[in-house]
């Protein structure tokens, strides 16, 4: 039986279990948006800068207008901004530790250990009313961000290492699928008549730690990564047992032989530190591609759509913008499923190019729609269609693929450092967009998405020129693609060998 073609119950349980960490990431991304006005009111009360008595009590004022009074106070604005930003800051810091945590006790035990962070964060936010809500929520969000920074690296790393070659793309896409499902769940239960109201919002935030509890019960059932066991620890028999658990009864000799060759390469190149990887010319091409993939994901404008979709729909003349935003979440999920189905057939490079090219056209169409909607009423439909198509194209390729392609581009030695760097790049870009988009929008107004169209065009050209197809290739074959142009002369070969030896020596030291 072909060892690359098995999909077993154990493999399905392992992928589902680790994807719960990605679900928490998505939930935490989306949950903070819906109850903003309610939370600002509680912050204002706790800080002593706002109360119902100081709010305008006229008969004409609505409850939401009273809430917005609290949100206009500079101190409340500061604490609210910190509540949003602390999540990204936590992720930026912890993304550097992915390799360390993954190698410390293994991928599975690493994820089990960090669940303490998620549960702690959930409890802090769930019980935030018993003390100072602003301090409790900011602390909880920072800890949850720290957890999500780790899980956004550990999940793709583990799935990439356990997935059969034929399904590596589809299973790798489950990380992004779980993220978008998490965002959708947070949008639905964040509606004011569910949990996004005055009484229930702490529970809404606290639930972000709930998947970690379920995951903690399921992780002990998951086999450790065979690649980690064999290549990092040198435990061949344990790696074989893990392969049998993941793939059923089959001849594992081909997989063991592949890992053996990879271990020999890893022993030559050593485990590369983050600083060594940045300075290394040997891995420069792979690293450039990996970082550019993550930059294209974040600077595509997708977060501008996610964070500010409600206000964009309001400008486009939608009567109930919050439901249109949930519609975006549904489209998001559907087209991530499409990506799961296509990624191992069409290939990574094809889907990224189709996605980025489609998003470029949609960004231009959205600009035209927003600019002309006051002159032509039907332009609001152009704007809405552009938003839905923009999200669809994003989830076909640029959304899910960067998360797992980094694990494919690098062999075992530099892989943890590369995933850590790519993760930090992703979180930092996310933070920059979240903080600067309101100002860019004020500056460029209706032309804001032209900026993203230009960036998307640059990313499309880069992908066409530099990103190789990794579908169906072993990790060694992918590495060989990048080394092709490097070893034309004996001098280049000597330089590479010397540099790899120096990397090994510095690591051993």
From TrEMBL:
Database matches in PROSITE patterns: MFS, SUGAR_TRANSPORT_1, SUGAR_TRANSPORT_2
InterPro entries: GLUT, MFS_dom, MFS_sugar_transport-like, MFS_trans_sf, Sugar/inositol_transpt, Sugar_transporter_CS
Keywords: Membrane, Sugar transport, Transmembrane, Transmembrane helix, Transport
Membrane topology of this protein: Multi-pass membrane protein
Domain of life: Eukaryota
Primary location group: membrane
GO-annotated cellular components: brush border; plasma membrane
Subcellular location: Membrane
Transmembrane regions: 7-27, 77-100, 112-132, 138-159, 171-195, 201-221, 322-343, 350-370, 376-396, 417-440, 446-467
Limits of the Major facilitator superfamily (MFS) profile domain: 14-471
Pfam families listed in its UniProt record: Sugar_tr
GO MF term (any one): D-glucose transmembrane transporter activity
Gene3D superfamilies from the UniProt entry: MFS general substrate transporter like domains (1.20.1250.20)
GO BP term, example: dehydroascorbic acid transport
Family under the similarity heading: Belongs to the major facilitator superfamily. Sugar transporter (TC 2.A.1.1) family.
Matching NCBIfam families: SP
Protein name: Solute carrier family 2, facilitated glucose transporter member 2
Native organism: Channa argus (Northern snakehead)
